[in-house]
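Table S2 (text version). Query chain:
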Amino acid sequence: MSAQAEFLDEAVALLGPRGLTSDPELVTPWLTDWRGRYTGRALALASPASTQEVSALVKLCARHGVPIVPQGGNSGMSGGATPDESGSSVVLSLRRMNTIRALDAQAQQAVCDAGVILQTLHEAADAEGLRFPLTLGGKGSATVGGLISTNAGGTQVLRHGSMRAQVLGIEAVLADGSIFDALIPLKKDNRGFDLKQLLIGSEGTLGIVTAATLRLLPALAERAVLWAGLADIRDTRKLLLHAQDVAGDALEGFEVMPAHSLKAVLAHVPGARAPLAGEHNWHALIELAADKGRAAALPALAQGLLESAFEADLVEDATIAANETQAESFWTLRDEIAPAERALGPAMQHDISVPVASMADFVAEAVPRVEQRFPGTKGIAFGHLGDGNVHFHVLAPAGATRGEWETSEGKLISAFVHDLVKQWHGSISAEHGIGQLKRDELGRLGDPVQLALMRQVKHALDPQGLLNPGKLVPLAPSQASH
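Corresponding structure-token output:
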């Protein structure tokens, strides 16, 4: 019997036929990333039903030297949950572990398995008069474990922070199969390293998140959604500062998009309508929110923000959503930008950040520089201006062939964009993770001291290199040269 066959026999005995399969029809859908850029092969698909089964499987993999690729909803943007082409690894799906173990309304906390879908968590919190303060377009497929592993952001980071800020406790299986249990949250705990923070954002390279204790907040009692048209990206920065001054911590979100993105969405989404009558170079989507105690004052606050923005000549035109249906339609225009632009043809997508105060100036300079350097392309920047993170897409020239353009001129474009980001003291990954998509670029542009520390931590916690190999952590120069 071959070593692989022996491993598979033991794995089936451990997890049962439902917990482990090599059936190509069942495995194949999970071997390609959401964007369709990476397709790998796998020895099997493992779907454990508990932390104890994850632990036992990891111990088995360690004994046989089998690499493990953890996977949540497979909705990541950087190929971080896709195996390589060797076919030697096991894809470890956490989707069966989808139980909300506890929801304490009084403590405003929930303990969730890693496979809990974000939308499911939203609905469970809402039923208790609470909310989980992180959302994103893929909430119907993204899982708690995946969100933690990539330190996901979303549209509410401006007020509430990224996923890192929502995690109060964590449970994870380490590379030797031991279970790191730090689910019970303490407001103050000074017993050395905060190891849960090391696991958050590590993309499954240091441990496999199996559960987490998450913070909840009182449900929103009222919200006001505003849409503004502006002449220039720098005007959006001025409007942001004004909104922060007027609305304070009621400012829940501040998103921006250029006219090109809005037109693409209007053409892509049936029945979509522009919020404003005129043409504007830039648009800002602003959300103010209040809990029960401050709900009554929110309409006047929104109206005051709108009027003072007009008086200060910060906007060309603006409106407030008249009802919840219209508010949702405004957000749909924002959430549909990526699929609308994907329908236009090939593009290179960059999830970048620079210091918040510099973002508008960066966009104003970077877009024309990219378009001049690569004739026929179109630079598009949209997203979370309030937290210094935009999605910087470069659309291919007309007639470009999808799949070919990205691997030729597209790679040069990404390197050029990343070089600009480094010049502006920013990050080439703001919220989507590094995965395999940006691993080599991180190695090229990252601080040598930081990279050396990452490699040391990886080796210390995963000496066999079996946890999500080839992701996040760049090779050392001596390895990369071979």
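Notes on Table S2: The chain has a mean pLDDT of 95. The longest strand covers residues 222-230.
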